[in-house]
Please model this.
Amino acid sequence: MRLRQTLFANMVSLSIRLGANFALNKILAILIGPAGFALVGQLQNFIMLIQSATSGALTTGITKLTAQAEGNLGRQRQIWSTSLTAVLLLSLVVAIMIICLRGWIATSILGDPVFRTPLLWAAITLAAFGINYVIAAIFAGKSDVRPYASLNSAIALFNLFIVTAGAYFGHIEGALLASAISQSCALVVGVFLLYRRKFYDLNITRPLLDPALVGELAKYGLMALAAAASLSVGQIMVRSQIIDNFGLVTAGMYEALWRLSNINLLLFSTTLMVYALPKMTRIIDKSEFRAFYLKALAAATGFAALLFASEYLLRTPLFHLLFTSEFQPASDYFSYQAIGDLARVAALVTSTALIALSRAGLYIALEIIRFACFVMISGWLMQSHAEDAPALAYMLSFCVSALIGLAMMMFTGNEGLRGSVK
Model:
């Protein structure tokens, strides 16, 4: 029953988020074209990286620790207060660094210091986005699906309207600026939803840094930061390689592919975060944990296989519908991308299990392996001027990661693997 409720709430939220993302991709494809897509992708990957460094890296730990403290509201509020304080301090430090280095960063990732203004606004709004991240993690840890889904839907809609306005009135520069601030504008929704929950207390907002909690959050933070860095930095590096070898237009084609992949992963990532992670965290029996992991793996990959196979068969009209005719060549690389997405879903289930088990070392090792495979294989294949190199590298890197992760879960000794499971 709980799983059905979770899936239903996620499906409603996912429908809104999918619609918003599909609409935004279509609008950006029309207004700024493939070259603009590539630049927006570079900026968004950088923003994802700094958000992970300040807040996103802590949210998995907040979710897990909140679930572990189920029934102990005082402990949960202590977790939330410490998390909010840590996020605000980290946001301040990172924001100052970005403001001081924004010219150099703009030149490095966007190719022109003229784009430093979006970075300035990203730094200014960083704390607001971080608070929203913490609020979403609280809802996930409480398995409070409705506000979690509502907040994510609001973020998607704010992003749609603000980035659309930016691209319409300011073309590429406007789209970049809007991308930097859009999601932070949803903070008012997050605060409103939190205020309405029964477990809300004003003490949550009081500054608190519990050393023991900071240490625990830091462990999960390293895990989440490794995941975000491997994806964001990997895509920034590979996109730069594509621009150098094939130009901005081809880089925009791959940005379209990666955006479609991210949309595909929404259903799986939200369900795993809201349902599977809290459930795995509460399981204390080893055999029950393994059975749940295998069940989740089979369900996720089975559904993903059907979804991605359907998309592959419909790839030509799909790209016409979601983008424009300028992006049609990207459909030639879609077979590699679809297989990579399937492996990515499997890797995501394994990563969720490793988080539940507090196996930070194994988790980070998997992310490093995938990052290295993606960047190195892309660079090696692009030396022969193969435009499908990034898609092939994406597929191979996630396949390797998924297989190694499965082997860790199935063949590593229980005492070495099970960490927190008795």
In short: The chain has one domain: 2-417. DSSP finds 14 helices and no strands in the chain. Residues 313 and 335 are 10 Å apart (CA to CA). Residues 2-417 form one domain.
